[in-house]
Design a protein that fits this description.
This protein has helices spanning about 1-20, 30-35, 50, 80-90, 125-135, and strands at about 25-30, 40, 55-65, 70-80, 95, 105-115, 120-125. The protein is α+β, with helices and mostly antiparallel strands and about 150 residues long. The protein has one domain: TolA/TonB C-terminal domain (2-Layer Sandwich).
């Protein structure tokens, strides 16, 4: 009896993958690789309500890109508040990726920060955030995905 249950699960997994709607064959990519496959991006807007309240932080979103290069699904893994995560979702849904045979999935990180010198609020990608810390001489930056 236990063997038939295992075979049923395997059969369901294979049929879901065969029609392209399952997770079979979808490759998981690093953030760097995922961004390199991106043909066009839109940077999220810093929500005015969040900037007025001084809210900032890190947003991490897991995205599934279909074979046509469109963001099909997402899961917000980390966010400081709903307004900021909605801004990220709206922007990422407009991103276009290179077409692939099975699609791709991965995590994307955004940093919502305030430049204390200029008093401006910014949305930074990981490389920009890291170089900003290096420019200011701060060595305490750590990648939240590690």
């Amino acid at each position: 009896m236990q063997l038939s249950v295992v075979l049923l699960v395997v059969a369901l997994t294979q049929s879901a993958s065969a029609d392209g709607h399952g997770t079979g064959g979808v490759k998981t990519a690093s953030e760097y690789r995922l961004r390199s496959l991106c043909l066009s991006t839109i940077r999220p807007a810093y929500p005015s309500k969040s900037s007025q309240m001084g809210v900032g932080g890190v947003v991490v979103i897991d995205i599934l890109v279909n074979p046509r290069g469109e963001v099909e699904k997402y899961t917000v893994l980390q966010t400081p508040n709903k307004d900021i995560s909605q801004s990220v979702i709206a922007a990422v849904h407009q991103w276009k990726f290179a077409k692939s045979s099975n699609g791709i999935r991965g995590k994307v990180t955004f940093y919502f920060t305030q430049d204390l010198t200029t008093r401006t609020f910014r949305v930074l990608y990981p490389d920009e955030f890291k170089s900003d810390f290096a420019r200011r001489g701060e060595l305490s930056w750590q990648n939240p995905n590690k």
